[in-house]
Amino acid sequence: MKITLNRINDDFLFECTNTAGNSILLDNTSQPGAKGVSPMESVLMAVAGCSGIDMVSILKKQRQNVTKFSAEVEGERIQVDDAKPFKSILVKFFVDGDVDPAKAQKAAQLSFEKYCSVSKTLEPNVTVNYEVTVNGEKV
Predict the structure, then answer these.
(1) Is pTM beyond 0.85 here?
(2) Which InterPro entries match (predicted)?
């Protein structure tokens, strides 16, 4: 796996591109007019994307009819010297459709305990928790 990072303006806007040519913009979001996400926001996005792919894949294999899937991710940061790493992350999943709530809960559990490489990478230093809501009802 490899990405390239290129600075694309005179400030802090960077384009990160993978080997397939897909890209995201990173920026210093503490500056006015930022045009990308902060690197720390991208970590939260990666957790949501990784676990989201796992959950949808697991639910499809279980023949669950997911009509809508979304997530919200909140990260709590702490001061460590001059850095502010994440202390904890909470992922809230929202699943709609003809979906068994127990299967959605199990899919989230499998993602975080077994499959999600992003949360596994963070795991030694960051507590990652999750909640699952199916058709408006928290599981």
Answers:
(1) yes
(2) KH_dom-like_a/b (IPR015946), OsmC/Ohr_fam (IPR003718), OsmC/Ohrsf (IPR036102)
Give how far Cα 12 sits from Cα of 21, 36, 81, Å.
21, 9, 23
Distance from C-alpha of 119 to C-alpha of 129, rounded to nearest angstrom? 10
Distance CA 131, CA 29 (A): 28
Q: Hunting for tokens 């599981």 — which residue is that?
A: 139
CA distances from 9 to 22, 27, 102, 115, 125 (A): 19, 10, 48, 37, 34
Q: Are residues 84 and 114 in the same domain?
A: yes
* DSSP conformation letters of 13-75: -EEEEETTS-EEEE--TTSTT--SB-HHHHHHHHHHHHHHHHHHHHHHHTT-EEEEEEEEEEE
Domain match, 13 and 61 both: no
| Residues 56-88 pLDDT 10s | 999 999 999 999 999 999 999 999 999 999 999
